[in-house]
């Protein structure tokens, strides 16, 4: 492994989460710093909710430029910050802290990453109708940012579980705070799902369905839900092609997985913290990211 030459000038940016050792995030951020010629290293710190307040005090005391934040800290870290961005406030979650001379600002770049990955793939839902399934953290970020960025109509579906009220709350927030008109539907109503998908420009799975332990599974009953000009995206990044994306691709739809969202949320976080934007094409190549599935020959 090539090592960054560490000197007295080297700065540190951390990722605070638990568990976190499996995360690809430090590798992504370090690759970006290297490309930008920045004397900064990014390390993962196992920080859970009990240690978070002390860790944020440490960030202030050590004058770190900022921190990346993941679960379980995303929904509680705002308590220890000086300000939270409007999008992060609406999402109820922070994934990026920017330290501006001791003043800590929380942002959420998950939704920004999703919208930027669409644009990077020539998909622009501005002024159009979208259908998004999901009620958890990823879904909320995608739904709120899409509404803030100009989607005209959004049908949000979620199954009846402990997350369902989040989706109902998200619909309320979108209708009260943006120009987008959002409606909630139960995911159990598959006839309605089919109708809403039929009148949408874009359909998105923003649940964990399709990823381990739900790999190979989809709540879409059959390919008749997909018409060829429907764009179908998934926030799941592993496997690269979920069962739903495969069904959609075989039905002729343009599809996109969650790898782009993951990359562009990091690029946006780096830009917020350090004021510089790394070249996304370089990052895709460096990290072996291919978020548009093109292998038509595969089963
Ligand atoms: P979460 O635990 O906050 O929410 C889970 C969601 O999945 C809820 O909406 C829940 O209702 C739904 N769900 C679970 N089982 C279901 C089932 N059998 N049928 C229908 N819905 C079901 O999780 P999260 O943080 O929102 O993550 C969701 C997915 O998004 C995960 O696969 C995660 O890896 C992915 N994700 C991707 C990115 C990215 O950058 N691409 C970022 C964050 C999360």
UniProtKB/TrEMBL annotation:
Pathway: Metabolic intermediate biosynthesis; chorismate biosynthesis; chorismate from D-erythrose 4-phosphate and phosphoenolpyruvate: step 4/7; Aromatic compound metabolism; 3,4-dihydroxybenzoate biosynthesis; 3-dehydroquinate from D-quinate (NAD(+) route). Its EC number is 1.1.1.25. The keyword Cytoplasm does not apply. NADP(+) binds at residues 134-138, 235, 258. Shikimate binds at residues 23-25, 70, 95, 110, 237, 265. GO terms for molecular function: quinate 3-dehydrogenase (NAD+) activity; shikimate 3-dehydrogenase (NADP+) activity. NCBIfam families: PRK00258.2-1 (NF001313). This is Shikimate dehydrogenase (NADP(+)). It comes from Lachnoclostridium phocaeense. The lineage of its organism: Bacteria, Bacillati, Bacillota, Clostridia, Lachnospirales. The gene is aroE.
């Amino acid at each position: 492994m090539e090592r960054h030459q560490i000197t007295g000038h080297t700065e540190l940016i951390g990722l605070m989460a638990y568990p976190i050792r499996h995360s690809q995030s430090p590798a992504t951020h370090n690759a970006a710093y290297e490309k930008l010629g920045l004397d900064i290293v990014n390390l993962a710190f196992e920080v859970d909710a009990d240690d978070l307040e002390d860790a944020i005090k440490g960030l202030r005391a050590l004058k770190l430029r900022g921190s990346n934040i993941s679960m379980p800290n995303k929904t509680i870290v705002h308590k220890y910050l000086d300000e939270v961005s409007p999008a992060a406030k609406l999402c109820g979650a922070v994934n990026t802290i920017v330290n501006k001379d001791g003043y800590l600002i929380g942002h959420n770049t998950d939704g920004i990453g999703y919208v930027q990955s669409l644009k990077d793939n020539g998909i622009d839902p501005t002024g159009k109708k979208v259908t998004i399934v999901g009620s958890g953290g990823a879904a909320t970020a995608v739904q709120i940012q899409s509404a803030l960025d100009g989607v005209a109509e959004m049908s949000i579906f979620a199954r009846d579980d402990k997350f369902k009220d989040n989706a109902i709350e998200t619909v309320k927030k979108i209708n009260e705070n943006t120009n987008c008109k959002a409606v909630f539907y139960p995911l159990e109503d598959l006839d309605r799902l089919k109708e809403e998908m039929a009148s949408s420009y874009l359909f998105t799975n923003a649940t964990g369905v399709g990823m381990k332990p739900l790999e190979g599974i989809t709540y879409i009953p059959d390919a008749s839900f997909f018409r060829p000009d429907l764009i179908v995206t998934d926030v799941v990044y592993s496997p690269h092609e979920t069962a739903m994306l495969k069904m959609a691709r075989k039905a002729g739809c343009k599809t996109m997985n969650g790898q782009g969202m993951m990359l562009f949320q990091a690029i946006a976080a780096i830009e917020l913290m350090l004021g510089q934007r790394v070249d996304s094409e370089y990052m895709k190549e460096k990290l072996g990211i291919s978020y548009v599935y093109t292998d038509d020959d595969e089963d």
